[in-house]
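fyi for ur records
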Amino acid sequence: MEKKFLDEAGLRHLITNKIKPELDKKVSLDENGMIPADKLPSYVDDVVEFEGFVDDATIQTSSFGGSTVYTVVYVRAKKCFAAQTGLTQAKTYYNNWGTRENYQELNGNPYGGKIFVDINTNKTYRWGGTELVEISSGGVSLGETSSTAYAGDKGAQNAKDIQAIKDGDLPLVGLSIANFNTSTQAVVTPWKVKTADGTSVACTALGSLDTLYGYTVTFTGSYKWQETAGYKSPTAVNGGNWKNKMLPKSGLYSEEITVDNITSDTTITASVKAPKQGLIVENGYVKAASAADFDTKSASISVHFQYKVFAGAVTSALDKSGLEEKLQSSIKGGSYVAQNGRGKVLTGVTTTSQQYYVYAYPSKLGKLTKITMNDAVPLLDGGFTFKTLTVKDPETGMQLEYNVYTSEQMGAFSNAKLDIA
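which gave:
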């Protein structure tokens, strides 16, 4: 076969029309030997870290335990990243691991739009299509255009803000109110209940208390909070009954307070606060939480007083002694009902020809506005007489004024319904 040799014209044709176009397809370095910024991807702020290079390794396709400690390395011979596990003399490599999707496809091709940082040398690389290309020593300008790299501090802040949106503001830890006896190291009742002459009445309530109007109550107690994972801790007191006291440390009871001479419904409140965190929604807009934005949490314990109400048939209009007898404890033959207000719906009301019907309650609750029989007949005016009686409550020892309503006629009711308000 005849051999042919390139002459000058043929060589020029080969270089100009064949070789040069192929070279132009590759990334050209600038005068400093760096990759020009306009050849870098527009999203170079996407940065991940790895821990050095390995010349070669056998890479497993099986998975490893979720709690296994691993590092991410680049295997030069395989031209891919891998998870490295095991001791120095017995390392194993895997092609799939928990954060693999941050580095490369499952087939082993690293992503072209990422910056890879070797944390052993602080050098940075990008995937050039066939190999990692170092970009650490220059050639990249910071900026916010398609041909510049995004500043790392701005990217980090963006990531932080996005994570704050995803996580939301952590809820504030809860708190509780109790009376803690330091001598016995036990929680005891925070309430002391006394009669009008100062005699103590047995009370075992550890939480809120229901008692009778006429008693005098004293509260003594503290509150505490407990540091809890997934919740933020309070930083200051936010008012309430402990507003002038110091915030206690986690797991410790606060300074004890006492509230004396409670004779009407009262709520004891502990309240704490902590700054809101990250990004918050205010009036429909997302904004960064400011120093004036707080979350609050409160706990309450209360005492509620019920009123002795007598409703029933009597053979004669009640006087002071008769009403006091009706207000005796039920175990002593009394017939009152403890209720929250003056109103009540009574059914099956019946009086004989020798009986009146009486409805009596503490004047503190005000006068009645209606007495209606069987949802139709008004009896407040013309059907009942009204008077007040001041009596000594047999249990509380308190002098109390009562409003007493008595039917004008004996035998006025037969299985009737009375709506009283």
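Residues 326 and 349 are 18 Å apart (CA to CA). thats all i got for now
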